[in-house]
Write a structure and sequence with these properties.
Shape: rod-shaped
Strand content: 5-15%
Largest sheet: 2 strands, antiparallel
Structural class: mainly alpha
Bound molecules: zinc ion
Distance between the termini: 27 Å
């Protein structure tokens, strides 16, 4: 059993106690809700990433087929890079979202 400092009154308390014996703040619940907020922020961040990757992917397709013809030269290269990075980024982010959901 270790002694930790109460986040509110700074008095020493057991790390296993869910409530501080001095000020009665519920330490266990506090850290749990902090973890939940962290988890929500993480999943929001992942949603943003997947949205950005999808946008890049669509931009790549648009650049590639701009004007109804398959692009050539530099434009084709830019389109292909956007397409590949957007696609890979989207897949990776989807996997991370699934892993994140499984964990929480
Ligand atoms: Zn306290």
């Amino acid at each position: 059993m270790a002694l930790i400092e109460c986040p509110v009154c700074k008095k020493r308390m057991s790390s296993k106690a869910t409530r501080c014996p001095s000020c009665n703040i519920s330490v266990g619940e506090e850290s749990e809700s902090a973890a939940r907020i962290n988890s929500i922020q993480k999943s929001t961040q992942l949603q943003t990433h997947s949205f950005l990757a999808l946008t890049l992917f669509i931009a790549g397709v648009v650049i590639w087929f701009w004007g109804g013809e398959v692009a050539e030269g530099k434009q084709a290269l830019v389109g292909a890079v956007c397409f590949v990075f957007g696609f890979a980024g989207y897949l990776i982010t989807r996997v991370r979202i699934v892993l994140h959901k499984r964990k929480s």
